[in-house]
Amino acid sequence: MKKHYFFYIFVFIVSIAFTAISCGTDDSAQEYEPVSPVVLDLDAAPYDSLSKYKFFEGEMKNLQPAYKVLPYDLNSSLFSDYALKKRFIWMPMGVQATYAADGQVLNFPVGTVLIKNFYYDNNYPDRDTFIVETRLMIKKATGWVFATYVWNDDQTEAVLDMAGRSKRVMWYQNDVTRIINYKIPSAMECALCHKSNGSPVPIGTKPQNINKPYTYADGTENQLARWAKVGYLAEGYPTGITATVNWNDTSKPLELRVRSYLDINCAHCHTDGGQCDMPSMNLAFVKTADAANLGVCIEPHDFVTGDQTHIVAKQNVEMSLLHFRMSTNEQSEMMPFVGRTIVDEEALTLIENWINSMDAPCP
């Protein structure tokens, strides 16, 4: 009996020693690499419901990103009837985007998903948040595809809908109740803005637009630096990127704010290869340091419906076609002709101030 007792003690001591030795090996010292829960089968996507991708943790309406679903923002945002946006990007393991130019969309690898949620704060009557739609752009081997998901009233799910529809939205803006029929675009309408030389492309994800600090859960960091840190952007991109600005930032020069606004809201069409590619106006940020590309003192030959004398007539708002197009809601005359149903009043004031500040009338 005593021999057995000592034998068991010996085995116990040896097992503890072995465990201690094995815990100190190099294999166990390796860091555990978590895996993103996102589910993306490129052959099956787009899925019929947003929840199937598993982009978000917890209640989906909270838009709490899952591991490796990275939030991001733009210096200036496209106007969408005052809807707010929360943007995210996800990539599969082992691939990276690469830099092309300050004003060109990053070269994204196959499997990239860009996620943009459109929502209103101060929703009527409870002043809560209401998400209207989530738009995805998914990079397949054959190119980018669109997927629009419309949220239910309970904010528990969003279902695929590429036909386009209107949804009544009521919210408080500066303590005034506003009501609109928010337009959710069809696949064809998405393509009108998101096409370059006939192929679908993203709009906002250019280094000039995302070169800015962002406050993440663990601190504030430049977005491009964070993308590189998490493996989403290859090293070697320049540090001196010429960036757009927040057009609402009144501390910035007026013309720089105008150029930034027109770039994100208009340049996807009014640029080389865009839907409205024309020689009289190129609103890409890299082009508008030249005032002629802004249409300043350029006589209009396209989209003329009134008696405006110039695309932008110095010191004369009424004779400026740009201002007229932004100030109307007539479908046949408004610009942009998709993506909004009401006037961006603050931006219109920006354009008015810019035109009135010019040095002398056009000859």
Automatic annotation (TrEMBL):
Annotated keywords: Membrane, Transmembrane, Transmembrane helix
Transmembrane segments annotated in the record for this chain: 5-22
Protein name: Repeat protein (TIGR03806 family)
Highest taxon of source: Bacteria
